[in-house]
Inverse folding.
């Protein structure tokens, strides 16, 4: 919490947002701002202060990884219903980090080739290297969310996947990846108004797809599928965080805080020189 | 030039920086600021104003590509001697664009697998999709720069590559990619002081490699190799731009201007709705 000590956070974001035993999605108010005592203006200010911290921590992580000082990486997994604000998180939180330190992977409807493999095949290929912040815009969780709601796979296959995910994520964690799984939790009402905005603005038409309303119609089924995901896959090594997302400013600030706390935990240090500094200074001075 | 009309540019960046017939690298002053009438403070202000323009133009390009309204993409190729500021361009110019609209590819020393293929094999795989700004941090030009200076391939193979590059880039251009090739041109003196800074600051040690001085020793050979690159590969469809880079603020501003002018040329428009807007509004209103 050091980095946020002068700010309006009253608790550790990871503490207040983590899915623990007995968590029920239905109990979360999507307009709430857990752990944060400030308002929208404070939120914007605190987001801006976090930018430089996040950028430096990421650069340190990258630097440390170049000299084998760490095998750590961070993987942010973003899942949400349409319009919940994944794009805004990527633009305003992830986008504040040096692009050389970020590996972004957007998982869309699987291709024929991807479908011919196990559901984790395409995921495995996009796992971040040491030193990077990987971001999954949708993920392997689609295979137990839309996969379950739309019955894209048999029930026993969906069942198998929860265990496969837990094993996969444990292996990632053991190899140094800090996994931060975020569900952006908007209300159905807020989604309605955001979809209405897309239909009102010609510069937003391209973001609208008539299929969005079909998914919206299955809202309760999706919420049930998320609840099962949390129960089966929120683990010590890869916990879920449910971030109330009706207020965009809070959601962005909270995801930034989750990343900051994770990086502060890693506490990456500038690596020592792997060469003789004085000798190199002399060589440089002699060069033409 | 519309977008920059209130600013301190006195000419189109593409006009003043393009490598044309008779260009000689040795004639360029790395501390100069061609086409720009302002100083460092103006430069920072103009860079900041360009951020929102670049971001909107990129989003329009992406939107247009989603509805098949365009097959256009932009490919920024960055080449330079060490410390010339590629990283700063990526952080401060490219980094101001939504990460979802950028495809960054850093080409390092080729792997065994890459070396077993033609030199363009690994490049082809990273060509940007329509709607994106692709950025090559180093590129296929390494194969005729370090490739030539360090004699990593026979002379006739190096010779063959110039033609292969021209053909490759023509094919890219014909399929909609606007290629912007930038050489960041620093002086040997400026490099010396930037290397000295890396040796003075423990948070910069990780950026220093003793091999950098070996490359520095071959400076005149590299300049000759660049001169040949310009003569053989600066074409109508894929011109080179030589950007004086001793002043970081100018180099960043100039590359931003090159991207802005390229996107303004494409002039991407928000695509029309591909659905019946009123019918969708009615469906949304009826949804729960």
């Amino acid at each position: 919490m050091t980095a946020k000590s002068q700010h309006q956070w009253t608790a550790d974001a990871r503490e207040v947002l983590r899915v623990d035993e007995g968590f029920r999605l239905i109990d979360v108010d999507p307009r709430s701002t857990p752990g944060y005592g400030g308002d929208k203006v404070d939120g914007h200010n605190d987001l801006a202060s976090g930018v430089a911290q996040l950028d430096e921590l990421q650069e340190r992580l990258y630097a440390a990884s170049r000299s084998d000082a760490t095998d750590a990486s961070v993987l942010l997994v973003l899942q949400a219903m349409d319009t919940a604000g994944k794009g805004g998180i990527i633009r305003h939180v992830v986008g504040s980090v040096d692009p050389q330190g970020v590996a972004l992977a957007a998982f869309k409807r699987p291709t024929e080739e991807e479908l011919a493999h196990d559901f984790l095949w395409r995921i495995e290929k996009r796992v971040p290297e040491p030193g990077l912040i990987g971001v999954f815009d949708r993920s392997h969780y689609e295979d137990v969310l839309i996969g379950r709601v739309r019955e894209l796979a048999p029930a026993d296959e969906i069942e198998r996947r929860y265990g496969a995910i837990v094993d996969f994520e444990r292996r990632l964690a053991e190899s140094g990846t800090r996994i931060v799984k975020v569900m952006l939790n908007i209300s159905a009402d807020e989604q309605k108004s955001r979809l209405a905005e897309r239909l009102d603005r010609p510069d937003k038409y391209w973001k609208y797809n008539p299929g969005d309303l079909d998914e919206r119609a299955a809202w309760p089924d999706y919420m049930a599928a998320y609840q099962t995901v949390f129960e089966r896959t929120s683990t010590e090594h890869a916990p879920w965080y449910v971030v109330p997302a009706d207020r965009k400013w809070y959601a962005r600030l909270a995801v930034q805080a989750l990343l900051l706390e994770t990086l502060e935990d890693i506490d990456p240090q500038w690596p020592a020189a792997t060469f003789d500094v004085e000798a190199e200074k002399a060589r440089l001075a002699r060069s033409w």
Remarks:
- The beta strands of chain A are 73-80, 102-106, 133-137, 177-185, 240-244.
- Chain A touches chain B through 46 residues (CB under 8 Å).
- Chain A has twelve helices and five strands.
- The mean pLDDT of chain A is 95.
